[in-house]
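I keep forgetting this: the sequence line spells out the residues, with the fold written below as integer tokens. I include a record here:
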Amino acid sequence: TELYNPADFDKRAILKSYKLDVKKITIAFIGRLHPQKGLDVFLALAESMAINQRFQFVITGDGEFRRTVEDKVKLNNNLVYLGYMPSVEKVLAMTDILICPSLYEGAPLIGLEAAAMNTTVIAPNLVGFKEQIEEGKFGVLYDASLDLQEDIYMLRCLLEGDVDALVALGSNGRDFIKKYHAFDVVKHQYADELKEFFG
């Protein structure tokens, strides 16, 4: 909660530093550039919404599909690739909605990091994201279908609906994190588990 604190960042300044439009809603993908993370869904979504001037799409991360991302950016004027960013909190600070279209997950930390930054999360109804979003109310879940066009349609419906209400969900995140996931809260749980394990 100390590192991921929205009060420590100037959103407009960060957007301007990357030559992004401060008036647009910023939609981000953060993670490994690989189909398992749903990269193809995010790229196709950005392409399908290219004529909608209310949104801009940002990708940060690295991986074997980096060239694919770079090629797509050249063809799509509402898509920006920022490369690998070690400071995830800085990207989250300028993001209105984080989309995490993974095919599967274990315990995705990015959802909790986004929540701590009051960033709305849209994620598939999978173990990991499901529990975080249902309990924290800082985003929405969708039923991923493995059909690219169907998933894009569901995401577009969410974004092109009441997007202001969608963005506002993010404001629930930090209180949820402070109550259930902050270090001061969970350190006692870890201490108890270690005592039980080591006697």
The mean pLDDT is 92. The beta strands are 25-30, 55-60, 79-81, 97-99, 120-124, 139-142.
